[in-house]
UniProtKB/TrEMBL annotation:
Domain of life: Bacteria
Taxonomic placement: Bacteria, Pseudomonadati, Pseudomonadota, Alphaproteobacteria, Hyphomicrobiales
GO cellular component, one term: cytoplasm
Protein name per its UniProtKB record: Oxidoreductase protein
Every FAD dependent oxidoreductase domain range: 32-387
Length: 440
């Protein structure tokens, strides 16, 4: 069981299908590839390699899905959060931008395919995602987003006010952006199912095996973990925000940003008929986001970023989330309880896209998912798998780069940006005469 603070209780640990049986590494083991980290990125890489008959060993310090892969809110929307597609092209250049765009926008097909192929029990629902517009001006921005994503093959459309209310059950939105390929799931169940798939394909997984160091030995790499050693030709670090030891400086390549997730009691059947009646994922469209969806039991699962008392004062946080949800959905009953609450951590990068680091010949690391866990972590396995199979660097979808320490300002930049978004949301609402949600 993952460690949480006394006031944290995770819905996913209460409801996810059990993990496959694994245990600590003991003794000495030879492999083609050793992967460090049992989250989506490490698991999908291991699965990609094992399917091709490559001898792969995955080492996890705690348990499968211990980090962000088991703590996120379960949204699976194959988009880029902080950048428009033109901005991404300008930042990355070609061919890197188009390759990454193709991988990310196609990630949900990969997720759905793995869930179906391996019969993963994870509450998968692919009913789409709606980003709302709480001001009239927000609709225009969503129209630009739809044009960009549809141009690369995504199935999206802009909803008018009536269609938005019909799909979401909220009268607050002036319109919305609907992404038909998006979905949601039980993220810990998905991680555990991926682990089971890796083992079915012949891969080896050891949990409770923290990696101490990696040293060059007789032309290969000796990965010392727990009470054993894996000797491999290639090593991949996929530990993200939960990096501890293993390789000097890797844990300084990003900065941490917390996010919290909470779940209500199951809503009544009548409430579910008018609140997200099509079982979509809902983003309220604000920069200071409020994202929510149902789990299989009919609980609303919502996530926000901590700010001030929000996330630290539990009574205030529960009241704020209740007020926000009732503001969006006035038909919600007065008896609303938040029965689960937990935190996750994000490995934030300045550019908020994954970074592929060349640590040494035959050793790479990938960090910086920056909150795009389910689809991004799932599609990255293919990229890392290609690297391990010897695909030339020039043909990969991510550029290999030397390990860099995250700039100092990233220690406070994510929190500062949240406050900036909150002020921007307030200014836009006031300027348009639109109502503000509680505690905005």
């Amino acid at each position: 069981m993952a460690r949480f603070s006394p006031f944290e209780v995770s819905l996913w640990y209460a409801t996810a299908a059990p993990p496959p049986k694994t245990g600590p590494l003991q003794g000495r083991r030879r492999a083609d590839v050793c992967i460090v980290g049992g989250g989506y990125t490490g698991l999908t890489t291991a699965l990609d390699l094992a399917r091709d008959g490559i001898d792969v060993v995955l080492l996890e310090a705690q348990e499968i899905g211990f980090g962000g892969s088991g703590r996120n809110a379960g949204h699976c929307t194959p988009t880029f959060t902080h950048y428009s597609l033109p901005e991404l092209r300008a930042m990355l250049g070609e061919p890197w931008a188009e390759r990454l765009i193709a991988r990310q926008t196609g990630a949900n097909s990969q997720v759905a395919g793995m869930i179906e192929r391996y019969a993963i029990d994870c509450e998968w629902q692919q009913n789409g995602y709606v980003m709302g517009a709480l001001t009239p001006g927000g609709v225009g921005r969503l129209e630009a987003k739809a044009q960009q994503y549809n141009a690369v093959g995504a199935k999206t459309r802009v909803l008018d006010r009536q269609a938005s209310e019909e799909m979401t059950g909220s009268p607050r939105y002036h319109g919305g952006w609907f992404h038909a390929e998006a979905g949601h799931l039980n993220p810990l169940g998905y991680a555990r199912g991926l682990a089971r798939a890796v083992m079915e394909e012949g891969g080896t997984i050891h949990t409770g095996s923290p990696v101490r160091d990696v040293v060059r030995q007789d032309g290969a790499w000796a990965v010392h973990a727990g009470e054993g050693t894996v000797v491999a030709d290639k090593v991949i670090f996929a530990t993200g925000a939960y990096t501890v030891d293993g390789w000097p400086g890797l844990d300084r390549s990003y900065k941490m940003q917390k996010v919290f997730v909470a779940a209500t009691q199951p809503l009544t059947a009548s409430e579910r008929q008018t609140i997200l009646p099509r079982n979509t994922t809902m983003h309220d469209g604000r920069g200071d986001i409020f994202v929510y969806k149902y789990n299989a039991e009919g609980r609303i699962v919502a996530s926000m970023f901590p700010m001030g008392r929000r996330g630290s004062d539990m009574a205030f946080t529960h009241r704020l989330m209740s007020d926000r949800l009732r503001w969006l959905h006035p038909q919600l009953g007065s008896d609303l309880r938040w029965e689960y609450f937990w935190f996750g951590e994000l490995d934030m990068q300045k550019r908020t896209i994954p970074r592929l680091y060349q640590l040494a010949p035959g050793v790479v690391a990938l960090t910086g998912l920056s909150g795009r866990g389910v689809p991004t972590g799932s599609m990255l396995g293919g990229i890392l798998g290609e690297w391990a199979k010897g695909v030339p660097e020039k043909d990969l979808a991510l550029k290999l780069e030397p390990l860099r320490r995250a700039p100092f300002f990233m220690s406070f930049a994510p929190a500062a940006m949240l406050r900036y978004y909150r002020v921007s949301d307030w200014i836009r609402a006031k300027a348009s005469g639109s109502p503000l949600p509680p505690h905005a």
